[in-house]
C-alpha cells in the first residue's frame, strides 16, 4: 500500500501499486504509521516528499469498501469511520517537524486532494492529472476539517468556488494560476518527483530546527489546527 524510504535527510513516502490509492482503514493506518516513523527518525534538515505509483496520486476515500457493507446504514457508518480515522493523518502532516512536499504523479481527488494540500508544497504534472473535489457531484457533505483546510490553503473565493461548488476538474497550469499548487511544469511522474527532490535537497541544506518549523506551520493555520486538536507549544533555543 505504501512505503517509506530514507535517503540521507530526505524521507520518500510512496503510495504503491497502480490502483487508485483509495483511503480505506488499512491504507489510513499504514500512512499514519509511516508518518510517525518519519517523525521519530527526523533530525535537523529532514524533509518529506510524498508521491505515488500509476495514474492516480489518490482518488480519495475507498467508496467501494464503504458500499461493500451491504446496507445503507453500513455504508454510512463506514464513511464516517474513514472521515474520523483520516483526521489524524492530516494532523500528523501538520505536526511533522520538517518541510513536506507532495509530488502529484496523477489525479488527486476528494480526500486524496486533501492529503496533498496538507503538505507545505504541491507539485503537479503538466501533461497529466487533475485536481477534483467530487463531493458536490456525488452528494456528500464536506467534513468540517476539510472545509477549514480549503479556506486556509486556497486563497481566493473564486478558486474555492471552482473547486468545491462547481466540481471542476482542474489541470496543472490552471491550478498554478488559481494558487492551488506551486508548480506544474513537469512532463512525467519522474520529472515531478525529480523537481520535488531538488526542492527538498535545497530545504534540507538549511538544517532548520524541525520543532520550530512545525510550530510556525501550525501558527499559520490556527482554525485547521484547532479542528485537528493540535496545539502550538514549543520550547527551543537557537
Catalogue the unreliable spans. Answer: none
**Helix fraction bin:** 40-55%
What's the number of domains?
1
Task: Please give the alpha-carbon distance between the first and last residues.
Answer: 39 Å
Largest sheet: 6 strands, mixed
Structure notes:
The structure is a single chain. By secondary structure, the chain is α/β, with parallel strands linked by helices. The protein has one domain: 2-enoyl-CoA Hydratase, Chain A, domain 1 (Alpha-Beta Complex), CATH 3.90.226. The protein is built from 11 helices and 10 strands. The chain has a 6-stranded mixed beta sheet with strand order 1-2-3-5-7-10, with helices on both faces. β1 and β2 form a beta hairpin. The termini are far apart. The model has no long low-confidence stretch (mean pLDDT 94).
Describe the SSE topology.
Elements (H helix, E strand, L loop, with lengths): L1 E6 L2 E6 L9 H17 L5 E6 L3 E3 L4 H5 L4 H24 L4 E4 L3 E3 L1 H7 L3 E5 L4 E3 L2 H4 L5 H10 L3 H9 L4 E2 H6 L5 E4 L2 H16 L5 H11 L1 H6 L11
Parallel strand pairs: 2-3, 3-5, 4-6, 5-7, 6-8, 7-10
Antiparallel strand pairs: 1-2, 8-9
Helix pairs in contact: 1-3
Which key terms come to mind for this protein?
globular; 48% helix; 10 strands; 4-stranded mixed β-sheet; 2-enoyl-CoA Hydratase, Chain A, domain 1; 6-stranded mixed β-sheet; single chain; 18% strand
Amino acid at each position: 500500500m505504501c512505503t517509506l524510504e530514507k535517503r540521507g535527510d530526505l524521507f520518500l513516502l510512496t503510495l504503491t501499486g497502480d490502483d487508485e490509492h483509495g483511503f480505506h482503514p488499512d491504507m489510513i493506518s499504514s500512512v499514519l504509521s509511516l508518518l510517525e516513523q518519519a517523525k521519530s527518525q527526523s533530525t535537523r534538515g529532514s524533509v518529506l516528499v510524498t508521491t505515488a505509483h500509476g495514474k492516480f496520486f489518490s482518488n480519495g476515500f475507498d467508496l467501494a469498501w464503504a458500499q461493500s457493507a451491504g446496507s445503507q446504514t453500513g455504508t454510512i457508518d463506514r464513511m464516517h469511520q474513514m472521515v474520523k480515522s483520516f483526521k489524524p493523518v492530516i494532523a500528523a502532516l501538520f505536526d511533522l517537524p520538517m518541510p513536506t512536499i507532495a509530488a502529484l504523479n496523477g489525479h488527486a481527488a476528494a480526500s486524496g486532494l486533501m492529503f496533498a494540500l496538507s503538505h507545505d508544497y504541491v507539485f503537479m504534472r503538466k501533461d497529466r492529472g487533475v485536481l477534483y473535489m467530487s463531493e458536490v457531484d456525488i452528494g456528500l457533505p464536506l467534513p468540517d476539517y476539510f472545509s477549514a483546510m480549503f479556506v486556509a490553503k486556497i486563497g481566493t473565493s473564486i478558486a474555492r468556488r471552482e473547486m468545491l461548488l462547481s466540481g471542476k476538474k482542474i489541470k496543472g497550469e490552471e491550478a498554478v494560476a488559481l494558487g492551488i499548487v506551486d508548480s506544474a511544469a513537469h512532463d512525467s511522474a519522474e520529472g515531478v518527483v525529480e523537481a520535488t527532490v531538488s526542492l527538498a535537497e535545497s530545504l534540507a541544506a538549511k538544517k532548520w530546527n524541525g520543532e520550530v518549523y512545525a510550530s510556525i506551520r501550525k501558527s499559520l493555520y490556527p482554525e485547521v489546527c484547532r479542528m485537528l486538536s493540535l496545539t502550538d507549544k514549543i520550547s527551543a533555543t537557537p
